[in-house]
Design a protein that fits this description.
3'(2'),5'-bisphosphate nucleotidase CysQ; seven-stranded mixed β-sheet; Inositol_monophosphatase_CS; about 270 residues; magnesium; 2 domains; D-Maltodextrin-Binding Protein, domain 2; single chain; Inositol_monophosphatase-like; Fructose-1,6-Bisphosphatase, Chain A, domain 1; globular; alpha+beta; about 25% strand
Amino acid sequence: MPAPDEDLALLEGAARAAGRIALDFWRQDPKAWDKADDAGPVTEADLAVNEELHARLTGARPGYGWLSEESEADSSRLDAEHCFIIDPIDGTRAFIAGQEGFSHSLAVARGDRIVAAVVFLPVSGRCYTAFGEGPALLNGEPIAPTDRGVSGASVLTYRAVSEPGHWKDGRVPDFRREFRPSLAWRLCLAAEGRFDAALSLRAAWEWDIAAGSLIAERAGAAVSDRYGRRMRFNSQRGMVDGLIVAGPRLHGELLAALDDPGLRPAG
């Protein structure tokens, strides 16, 4: 059975290959269309990258399951000890617009835990990696989150998070809201301390956050769903109930400020 560092090497090579394919389409007016059920846009580049990743990764690890945004659901992954969790292009709208902030998000889950992860931004060459109990790295250098409280913190999130109804007694914390198009990258930006936190109160697809969650955790961030619970992956639903990713102090303050814990679901 391959060790997590061996899986990491496989993921990094695959991510860089994905980047070469994506850049062949980037700013070249790729064909794009909307997926069914308001699931967002997709381009011919997403599908080309997905095809390359599927062939490369499952060819190297034929016993691993497969969960990808751009593949048909395959329930056999639920019985696999290991599963690839992949977003071929995270930030497709940014990709279509010719912006630089899209990424490739690749992870391996063992059971319900992520054990190897890569988030790669091909335009800038930023490559975030982590495996098992190893460090989180950006282009080979260790990263770490900030250590600050909520007042004045820079939080990567969307506008609706600032609505009073999400917060105890309607008191929205005094943080500064920022945004980046790739959710996977947002987790990594919090992990490296360029921003103080990444926050989402909406359910998130596993392929968007699997890789970034391990990178943030190994960097020293506190990582949970929006209710403070440990994230679990390769689930039947394929989603996580939001996310809070930040240094331990800020994570605790955000969690404490959110709406009544009595409203949290069991589990």
